[in-house]
Structures are given as C-alpha cells and as structure tokens.
Amino acid sequence: MTYLHAAYIAMAVIHLGYILSLNARARRLRRDIEESRR
Amino acid sequence: MKNWLAIFGLLTAVLLGYAMYQALFAAPTESTMGDVQRIFYIHVPSAWVAFLCFLGNFIASIVYLKNRSQRADAFAVSAAEVGVIFCSVNLITGPIWAKPVWGIWWTWDVRLTTTLVLWLIYVSYLVLRRFAAGGQTQVVAAVLGVFGFIDVPLVYLSIRFFRTQHPQPVIAGGENSGLAPPILYAFLVGLAAWTAYGALVLWIRYRMERLRRDFEDQQALRAIAGASAEGAMR
User: Fold this and answer.
1) How do residues B47-104 score in pLDDT, each as one tens digit?
2) Do B215 and A29 touch (CB under 8 A)?
3) Residue B52 near residue B195 (C-beta atoms within 8 A)
4) C-alpha span between B32 and B40 (Å, rounded)
5) Residue in B36, B89, B215 nearest the CB of A14
6) Rounded to two decimals, what is the model's pTM?
7) Closest residue of A to B89, CA-based?
8) Over the range B121-159, which residues count as b (16 or more CB within 10 Å of their CB) and which as e?
9) Is B83 within 8 Å of B71 (Cβ atoms)?
10) How far apart, in whole angstroms, are the C-alpha atoms of residue B234 and residue B232?
11) At what angle do helices B70-102 and B137-148 cross, to 10 degrees?
12) Is the ipTM of this complex over 0.90?
C-alpha cells in the first residue's frame, strides 16, 4: 500500500464513519419520536 | 424539502465521483513528488471546508449571543461538528503526505501547530456542548466559538508570515506561485465537490439538531402539562 492509498483510505474511513454515526443518531431520534407518540 | 435534499445529494455524489476521477486518474502526475502529490486534491479542500464551517460557527455564535436564536445555536454546533470532521481529514492526510516528501511525519512549524490548535479548539467546543451542565453552556460555547475563530486567519496567514516546513501558498501566493492548468482544474473540481459535500452533511446535521431540539421541547412541555394536571387532581 502506498502513501497515496493510505491517505485516501483514511479520508474515506473518517467520512464514512461520520455518515454512519449520523445515521445511527437519526435512527435513535426517529425511534424516540415514534415511542413518544404511542 | 426532502426532495431538494435528495437532488442535492445526488448532484454531490456525481460531482464527488468526477472529482475523484480527476484527482486519481485525469490530473497529470507531478514531476518532483510523483503520485503522492495527488493527496493535495483532498488535503487542501478539507482545510477549505473546515474553515468555511468554522466561519459558519463564528457567525452563528455572534447571532446567538445577540438575540439568543435557537436556530443559530443549532447551526453553530452542527457547523463545528462538520468542521472538526474535515479538519481531522486535513490533519491526517497532511502527515501521510509529509512522510514521503519531507522524510518526517510531523514537525512543530507554525502552520501545522496552529492547525492542530484549531482542531483542539473545536473538539473542546464539542466536548463542552456534550458534557457541560447548567444553563449557560450555550453562551459559553458561543463565546468559545467567537474567540476560537481567531485561529482560522492565523492558520491561513502562517505560511505567508513565517518560514515554515509546510510549503508556501501555491494559490494566491504571489508571482512565483501557481498551478499548471490541468492540476488547477482537478483542484477546483475537488474544491467544488468537497464544498458541496460539506454543505450537504451540514444541512443534514442541522435538520437533525433542529428535530432533536423540537422533540426535547415537546417532551418537556408534555412533562410540565402532566405535572400540572396531576397537581390539579389533588
């Protein structure tokens, strides 16, 4: 693996990790809202 | 609103794909550094988007301090979070580029140090938002947002005012600076794509923050109404 690969993989991991974290938080919020409506 | 988000998301994905193609395949290989120079196409746009986000945090913090707008506060925290993500990419790709070119991962020169300090300021901001208790957290965070932004021009100007290990500016850096047209084109495409992606993520994060706050307000009102009804029954 070259330094170029390492840099692009690191960038992808950070952004993907953040998107997944946003997704998890949005799911949790949606679940809380639905539970409060019941 | 959701349709606009989907359309913008799709356009951003296409633009990002084109930017990656430009960065990794279409742009010519730089003569002295070789392929590793292609890190430039993510390293610099990441810093640019981080700066924009911190500027957004700065403006929103001033608006919040002026009129206690909850929208401004929600925008400030969202912008700080997205800014930290992009600043992290900048700080990680920098040393990976530095090692083969300079022979070292890191040096405490002014550009690198002020960038690390910038990241630490906004990580502190997020930690403050997340863990501080008490009614003044938003105000304290806004003040930190205003003063923390002072570091952004310091980072930007550091390579102009000081001799640093970090290269001198290649864009708007004077007579001997500049990029070859195909490299400049790939760079500008990358800049546009990452700016669009930053705006998209910020939009989603801001909407989520607003929704969370509305939900918590409703929960609080419901709890108060429940407690009042219970009191009236007694």
Assistant:
1) 999 999 999 999 999 999 999 999 999 999 999 999 999 999 999 999 999 999 999 9
2) yes
3) yes
4) 14
5) B89
6) 0.93
7) A11
8) bbeebeebbeeeeeeeebeebbebbbebbebbebbeebb
9) no
10) 6
11) 40
12) yes
